[in-house]
Write a structure and sequence with these properties.
Layout: H1 5-16, H2 25-38, H3 43-53, H4 55-66, H5 76-94, E1 100-103, H6 109-119, E2 129-133, H7 136-144, E3 146-148, H8 157-163, E4 164-167, E5 170-173, H9 175-178, E6 181-185, E7 197-202, H10 211-224, E8 225-233, H11 242-245, E9 248-251, E10 254-256
Bound molecules: S-adenosylmethionine.
C-alpha cells in the first residue's frame, strides 16, 4: 500500500488534532519531505510509525511544522505605528482596561513586546495580555522568557535596560513583564476564540494557511473584536476580503471592526 501525503496528514490529525490540510500544501509537504530525508527515513508510513511511538520525535515534528521563529518588536516600523497611533486611539476609546490577544504568540516575543508598548500608557500592574499558541512546548519556552541577543534587537533601548537581565549569552525578560501575560494553548483552526477584544495581534502564521482557512480565521477575529477594536497582522500579509468581512482598513497592517 502506498502511503501518500493525504494519508499522512489524516494520521497526523488523529495523533495531534493538528489539521495540516488547512496549511498550504506545497510548502508544508516540502518541509515534511525535507525532514524525512534529513532523518534518513523512507516514506510517510515509516515516519508515521515513528511518530506514533516516539513522543519526543512527535513534539519535534509539531515544533518543526508549525514554524515558530519570532522576535521582539518584529518589523519595528509597524510597532511604531502601533505605539504612536493605534494604542493612543484604543486607550482613548476604551479606557485602561484593554483586552489584548496575541494569537499564535510563539516564544513570547510578541506578547512581551505588547506589554512593553502598553507600559508607555499605564502601569504594568494594570496590563493583561492573553497569548495563545497551538504548541505546548513553545508556550513553555515563552513562559521561561530567555532570548538570544538577535531576538531583542528591535526592543527600544529604554525597555532593553529596564526589562532584560543578561544571563551568559541570553537575555532574561523581567518577571514584572511576564506577570502581565496569560499563556494558553489554542488552535486557531478548531478551538474557541476570545471575545470582546480591543486589540488582536496575529502575525506571521496565517501565511502558512490555505486561502479558505485564512478567510475563515479573519472572520473569526472580526467576531472576536469589540466594535472599534483593531486587528494587527504581519508585514507580508493582507486581508483581501476585508470589506466583505466588515473591517475598515486603518493602515497597511491594521484593520478595525
Ligand atoms: C512564525 S511564528 C509567529 C510568531 C509571532 N506571531 C511573530 O510574528 O513573531 C508562528 C506561530 O504560529 C503557531 N501556530 C501554527 N499553527 C497554529 C494554529 N493552527 N493555531 C495557533 N497557533 C499556530 C506556531 O506554533 C508558531 O508559534
Amino acid at each position: 500500500m502506498t502511503y501518500d501525503y493525504q494519508y499522512f496528514i489524516k494520521e497526523i490529525f488523529k495523533l495531534t488534532t493538528i489539521d495540516l490540510s488547512s496549511y498550504k500544501e506545497a510548502q508544508m509537504k516540502r518541509r515534511i519531505d525535507a525532514l524525512i530525508t534529513k532523518h534518513n527515513i523512507k516514506g510517510y508510513d515509516n515516519y508515521i510509525n515513528i511518530l506514533k511511538k516516539d513522543k519526543d520525535e512527535l513534539n519535534y515534528f509539531i515544533e518543526y511544522t508549525t514554524i515558530n521563529v519570532s522576535e521582539f518588536y518584529r518589523n519595528t516600523d509597524q510597532w511604531k505605528i502601533l505605539t504612536d497611533t493605534m494604542l493612543p486611539d484604543l486607550y482613548n476609546k476604551f479606557g485602561s482596561n484593554l483586552k489584548v490577544w496575541s494569537a499564535a504568540c510563539s516564544t513570547g516575543d510578541e506578547p512581551y513586546s505588547l506589554v512593553m508598548a502598553m507600559s508607555g500608557f499605564q502601569p504594568l500592574s494594570k496590563i493583561k495580555v492573553t497569548a495563545t499558541d497551538i504548541s505546548n512546548e513553545i508556550i513553555d519556552k515563552a513562559k521561561i522568557g530567555l532570548y538570544g541577543s538577535k531576538s531583542i534587537v528591535g526592543v527600544p533601548d529604554q525597555y532593553k535596560m529596564k526589562y532584560f537581565k543578561q544571563n551568559g549569552n541570553f537575555y532574561q525578560v523581567a518577571d514584572e513583564i511576564k506577570r502581565c501575560v496569560d499563556f494558553k494553548k489554542q488552535d486557531l483552526l478548531r478551538d474557541p476564540y476570545l471575545t470582546g477584544c480591543h486589540l488582536i495581534v496575529c502575525r506571521n502564521v496565517l501565511i502558512y494557511f490555505t486561502e479558505e482557512a485564512k478567510s475563515e480565521i479573519f472572520r473569526k477575529f472580526y467576531n472576536s473584536l469589540a466594535p472599534g477594536g483593531v486587528l494587527f497582522i504581519g508585514s507580508t500579509e493582507q486581508i483581501i476580503d476585508y470589506k466583505e468581512i466588515g473591517f475598515k482598513r486603518l493602515d497597511s497592517f491594521f484593520y478595525a471592526k
